[in-house]
């Protein structure tokens, strides 16, 4: 249900975006040249949202994700006045499970299996790169430019947290089983707003906010002999990256 709602919202936003930029483009004077195309770099903070951020044993979509580092490259080619085609390549790290997370999961497994006790050991972390492209419309006011972009592309997942669950006192389940780290390429969708300030003719200081959603990679569970307790089969990604950077006119 949550995933369907996200898709509906993104569809409505993209339709509204195209309608808005079409109206804006029509209202421009016919003699006005396109804006200057640009490229640049940025860095900042990746903030997990929604279920990706939640730390809840009983929610199989909870990702236990953390605030982390993000950086990347961004650029736009303007082909008609204020309308362009923008693209970005972004790395982001959304952390690993900490000891509090491991203890919370262990308590959940102990309760679900009726075990004497459980131990959860966590390794690896959320590391991804997304490559996105989409239409962009820019508003200008003095030395300021406001860029709005709707994008789609791929999310390359290099790793997700891996857990080793060790149960004590449970005869129906092997003593140890695993939730394996995932590595795959999946579809992703994004909405971006950036405020650029003109430092010189071809240099801009840029504040940028980028929302990202993906249904995420499939997760492999290994060593289970029963389907009791928390079983994660797919991990959605949902983040808001806030960054600062420099853009250079071409």
**How many DSSP-defined strands?**
12
Write down the CATH class: Mainly Beta
Unreliable sequence segments: 25-31
CATH architecture descriptor name = Beta Barrel
Q: Approximately how much helix is present in the residues?
A: 10-25%
* Global Rg: 22 Å
What are the secondary-structure elements, in order, as H or E? HEHEEHEEEEEEEEE
Could you say which overall geometry the principal axes of the C-alpha atoms support? elongated
CA(first)-CA(last) distance? 44 Å
| CATH-defined fold name | Porin
Number of helices: 3
Task: Give the mean pLDDT.
Answer: 90
Report on the structure:
By secondary structure, the chain is an alpha+beta fold. The model is unreliable at 25-31 (pLDDT under 50). 33% of the residues are buried. The protein is built from three helices and twelve strands, in the order αβαββαβββββββββ. The chain has a single domain (34-233, 244-249), classed as Beta Barrel (Porin), CATH 2.40.160.20. Helix content is 18%, strand content 51%.
SSE map:
Elements: H1 2-27, E1 38-48, H2 50-53, E2 68-80, E3 83-93, H3 99-113, E4 117-123, E5 127-141, E6 144-159, E7 162-168, E8 176-179, E9 184-200, E10 203-214, E11 221-222, E12 237-249
Antiparallel strand pairs: 1-2, 1-12, 2-3, 3-5, 4-7, 5-6, 6-9, 7-8, 8-11, 9-10, 10-12
């Amino acid at each position: 249900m949550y995933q369907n709602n996200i898709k509906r919202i993104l569809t409505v936003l993209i339709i509204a975006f195209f309608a808005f930029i079409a109206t804006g483009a029509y209202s421009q004077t016919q003699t006005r040249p396109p804006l200057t195309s640009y490229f640049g770099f940025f860095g900042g903070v990746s903030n997990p949202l929604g279920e990706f951020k939640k730390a809840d044993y009983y929610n199989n979509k909870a990702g236990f994700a953390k605030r982390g580092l993000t950086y990347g490259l961004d650029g736009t080619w303007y082909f008609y006045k204020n309308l362009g085609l923008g693209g970005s390549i972004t790395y982001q790290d959304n952390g690993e499970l900490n000891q509090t997370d491991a203890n919370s999961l262990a308590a959940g497994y102990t309760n679900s299996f009726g075990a004497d006790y459980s131990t959860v050991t966590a390794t690896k972390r959320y590391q991804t790169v997304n490559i996105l492209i989409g239409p962009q419309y820019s508003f200008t006011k003095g030395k300021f430019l406001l860029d709005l972009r709707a994008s789609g592309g791929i999310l390359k997942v290099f790793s997700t947290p891996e857990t080793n669950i060790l149960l004590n006192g449970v005869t129906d389940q092997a003593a140890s089983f695993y939730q394996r780290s995932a590595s795959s390429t999946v579809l992703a969708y994004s909405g971006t707003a950036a405020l650029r300030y003109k430092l010189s003719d071809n240099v801009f200081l840029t504040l940028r906010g980028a929302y990202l959603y993906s249904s995420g990679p499939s997760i492999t569970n290994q060593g289970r002999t029963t389907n009791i307790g928390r079983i994660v089969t797919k991990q959605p990604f949902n983040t808001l990256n806030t960054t600062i950077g420099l853009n250079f006119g071409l």
